[in-house]
Amino acid sequence: MTDKDLSALQSDILNAYYADNAKKLHRVVDRILSKFGGLTYKDTDDFYSLANEVFADVLKRYDYEQSFDGFLYSCLSNKIMSEITKRNREKRKADRMSISLEATNDKGEDYSLLDCLASDFDTFEEASKRQENGQYQDRVQQYISRLSNQQVNILNLLIDGYKPFEIRRILEISKNEYVDNLSIMRSYENVKVLFQI
C-alpha cells in the first residue's frame, strides 16, 4: 500500500468515526461504559475526551492487517479499564485517609471527634426566636412528647451542660445508643414541630 493509499484510508476512517459530532466513536465508548454503573455525565465526557486521544494513537499504530473497529475497541477498552481502575484506587486511598467523626480519639478515651465539635446551632434558641404569642411552651411540650424516656433524659443532661461522654456514663448507655438517640432527637420529623407557623 502506498503512502497515498494509507492517507486516503486514514481519512476515510477519520470521517467515519467523527461524522455527525463523533457519533460512531461515542457509540463505541458507550458500549464499553455500559459494563460499568454509577458514571455521571461528567465521567462520560471525560471518557469521550480520552477516546479522542486513544483514537489518534490507534490511527497512527494501525497496521491495516486487522479490523480497525476491533483494534480500536480493544485499545479503548483497555484504556478505559485502566482509567477506571486508577480512579477507584485514588478513591480508596482517599477513603483510607479519612477518619470518622464517631471514631474515638487515639488515647482510647471514651469520646469521639463529634463530641468535641462546637456547634453554634441551638434548636431551642432558634425556636424561641421564632415564637409567637407564647406558643413556644406548647411546641416544646409537643417535641418532648415525641421522645422516649431515655431521649428526654439525654435532652435534660444536654441542657444542664453535660458533655456527651458524661451523659453516656451517667445513663450507662453505649456510644452507639447515644448517637442513635441523638439522631432521632434531631430528626426533622421530631424538630419540625418547634418551627411550625
How would you describe the overall organization of this protein?
This protein has helices spanning 3-33, 41-61, 68-97, 113-116, 123-129, 136-145, 149-159, 164-171, 175-186, 188-195. The model has no long low-confidence stretch (mean pLDDT 79). The protein is elongated. 9% of the residues are buried. With 197 residues, the protein is an all-alpha fold. Helix 1 crosses helix 3, helix 2 (41-61) packs across helix 3 (68-97) and helix 6 packs antiparallel against helix 10.
Describe, in short, the structure shown.
The chain has ten helices and no strands. By secondary structure, the protein is mainly alpha-helical.
Strands, helices and their partners?
Blueprint: H1 3-33, H2 41-61, H3 68-97, H4 113-116, H5 123-129, H6 136-145, H7 149-159, H8 164-171, H9 175-186, H10 188-195
Helix pairs in contact: 1-2, 1-3, 2-3, 6-10, 7-9
Strand content: under 5%
Distance between the termini: 82 Å
| Shape summary | elongated
Count of DSSP-assigned helices: 10
Mean of all residue-level pLDDT scores: 79
The number of strands is: 0
What portion of residues is helical? over 70%
Show unreliable segments: none
Provide the succession of SSEs.
Answer: HHHHHHHHHH
Question: What does the largest sheet look like?
Answer: none
| Secondary-structure class | mainly alpha
Oligomer: single chain
As a whole number of angstroms, the C-alpha radius of gyration is: 31 Å
Entry keywords:
197 residues; 0% strand; 10 helices; single chain; mainly alpha
